[in-house]
User: What shape does this take?
Amino acid sequence: VGSEMCIRDRSYGAYVEEHVFPAAGMTRSSFGDAYETGEQAEGHVWNDEELLDPPDPIHMSVFGGAGGLVSSAPDLVRWNAALHGGDVISAKSLEEMTTAAPSGYGYGLSVSEGYGQTVLSFPAAIDGFNGSMVYFVEDQTSVIVLCNTEVVPAAQVAQDVSMMVFGDQPNRRREAHEVKIAPSTYPRYEGTYALTEDPWSRYAALTDPERFAMLQRVHVRAYGDRLYFDVPGHGLTWMHPMGGGRFFFKDHSGNRVTFDLDEQKSARGMTLRSKNAAFAFRRQ
Assistant: This one.
């Protein structure tokens, strides 16, 4: 970083503040929290009642190089310009940083293609915050999205903005609306559901094996006047009815569940739709 001088006996935060920020012209960035100056937004997390609460107190510096910096959207645009302009690292280091390994990542950046050019990006989240940075190399175009909540899908917003920058129209985001159903109907949905073999064959090469293992057997449970999707070891997610055996989650995942009902309106299976994937389950 910087002149790539030896940084022995220097803390990461001190080095970045003394050598990286000035070189990049980043005047609204710091290492660790900046609440005392009134400049840092307060983060929010999604609680069990699906309301936004401040996260548990934690100082950003504890994350070190994995998330200890506080910055602004304009400063991150300046960072991209300085990084690719040769102001903060050598050309050799930049090449290593932006060359994809088999995983699709360089050093700290996801490397892909879009609109006929190299696209560098990184979606990130930390207690109470999430954000996304997208950089189109040939056009030198930056798209920065910073959110002081875990709920807003920053990566999706950045993708939509990027599409508009290049003249495309992103899909309209339609918010689902909840309808009231009687809790007495919950037993027709409750039970244990096993993932069928079909999703395994379709998505095994594209999805983390741990995710498949987590979804192999799930439960639908009723507690009081609510119905929950229960992934063992992962927790409960409140299912909100849309009518016709369809339910949605109010978190930022956008996931939806549709039950396959028999003649008696009892579920024999269900389909979980998650982004571009559909997982079929059979009721046990």
